[in-house]
Amino acid sequence: DRIAFVGPNGAGKSTLLRLVMGSEKPDEGSARLGEHNVIAGYFEQNQAEALDLTKTVIDTLFEAVPDWTQTQVRSLLGSFCFSNEAVFKEVGKLSGGEKARLALALMLLSPCNLLVLDEPTNHLDIPAKQMLESALQEYEGAALIVSHDRYFLAQVANKIVEIKDGELLLYRGDYAYYQQKKQEELELLQTSEAEAEKEAKRAANRLKQKSKAESRRKRPG
Predict the structure, then answer these.
(1) pLDDT tens per residue, range 121-161
(2) How many domains does the chain have?
(3) Which of 123, 163, 120 is nearest to 139 (CA)?
(4) Could you tell me the pTM of the whole model?
(5) What is the CATH number of the domain that holds 135?
């Protein structure tokens, strides 16, 4: 499954991912990954800030996979939109989007069967987003994703979990299914409110009629 967590700012989406990864401890209860063969790769919102700014792009990757050939490294960098002379740029001179792409490439180098992604499309341009969408669609492992990018979620998520008032509400479908269900919930709520308003008016009218009838009975005949 590729599960997207949605909810308003401050609902606790990023906190939930940190709890899952063990980088933050719960106030009570427990949060942990399964015991059997779960190998997680974690992309934090500030992942790009951890890069060594003094190294070049290609050296950054070579440090992670020293046994790769230059052809293999340049091929991977090419798929993350680094080509020709761009691979020899110093990391400190990269744009925010380029740093994010490099950080994603580094994360995907580590073998894992669970991707935990917190706002992975921040600073990415459209070609880089499309590359990430394709990679996730073809990915055979599971993924937990937090993103404010609705189009991105529509392309990659097959289940949605809404965080609302501290509760997790599971929608067993993609983002379009989630939006449809939210619309149905809204219409049901509006119908219920309209019915309640009508009933309140009917009750008020009944009370008014009863009050009038009692007034008439109390008049001296």
Answers:
(1) 988 888 888 888 998 999 899 999 999 999 999 999 999 99
(2) 2
(3) 120
(4) 0.80
(5) 3.40.50.300
